[in-house]
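Suppose you are handed only these lines of text.
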Amino acid sequence: MIATARVTDGSRYVAKRARVWLADDTGTGATPALAVIDLGPGELDWRAAPHIVAAVADALDRGETHYTARSGIAPLRHALAERIGAESGVAYDPRAEILISSGGQEGLFVAVQMLIRPGDEVLLADPGYPTYADAVRLAGGVCVPVPVDPTAGVGLTADAIAARLTPRSRLLVLVSPDNPTGTVIGRDEMAKIAALAVERDFLVLFDEIYKAFVFDGAEHVNIAAFPGMRARTVIVGSFSKEYAMTGWRVGYVAGEAHLIQPITDLKLALSICSAAPSQWAALAALTGPQDAVAAMRADLAERRAALLPALAAMGVPHGNPRGAYYAFADIRSTGLSSADCARVFLERAGVRTLPGHLFGPGGEGFLRFALAQPVPAIRDAMTRLAPIVGELKPNEPQRRGGRR
Ligand code: PMP
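From them, the structure of the protein bound to 4'-deoxy-4'-aminopyridoxal-5'-phosphate can be written out as follows.
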């Protein structure tokens, strides 16, 4: 009885959504008639570069098959400190201010557990990546959604955040480039958010997992670099997206020692250390040739050119995403809910997308398209969808779904 009660209690926080994601990426259970073009997943079809794969074989040959230091192998922490310093101008001590985590996911999870106390309020974008809210609720925190208009293309703004601050506000979760909207927060807005954090005294968990992928002249700006922000920012990053290493499970957490120390303690309790061979592979990724990243970026630019204008031509707005590899398409004019629209697209066109409600109530009326397939497949998907969208739109204006 007691065990059952505890499981039920836990499921209030995370299990329901996790089941939706695992059972079926669309959450619809639909069976498509055509061969599926899968624009649902949060990863690309690319593989890790050969020198990264070779580094694992080398590590295994050398017997790097033991626990590592709990914060991760020293050369990787040093290389990361150098990279973060070069990219954002913020210096971190690799001995005490960097933790190697099992993917960004573990990093942000342990960070949230240690940065907030029960009852603390945490501001989160709605729509947003759902793991943040799960982690906050599990830590006893109170999620304070900050509405973001996905069609505006600007993401979280200082004004929207300021309007939701209270004396209990402890933490802001910020992700740029964003999943699911692809929004990149610009330097001016980031400066305003940083000034607000200093003035109103809250911490920022900054997820920069998609930092390698910015387009159309957008710039990745790290909030830790603004005055007063090093002391109140925890950065979470990952090798998953930049180096096509999703299955290798290596990420990092960076911040001042007093913030990173407790996070490292929880990571130790959770998983001791991250997988040793994967850490050596991550080191090779960081210090080796970067051509594969450049090639991925160039390929993504072409995929964007195949997707974004085609959506716009169908009369489906997408907020001009300038980063990550997603478009969050506004399908409200079809008159369908996001779940129904995802099902119709899958059943009738064999195109799999993610319904926006999986990213929070603010995602209702939207579908996430991932640039997960090569250009010809994306073109094919758009050709299949155009007549269906054209058919849906004029018929159902009175049934506009979604809140915004
Ligand atoms: N943050 C964001 C915004 C993500 O989209 C993801 C994965 N899709 C993660 C963190 C975690 O990724 P990983 O654990 O593979 O680093």
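What can we learn from it? The chain has two domains: 22-47+292-393, 50-287. The two ends are 44 Å apart (CA to CA).
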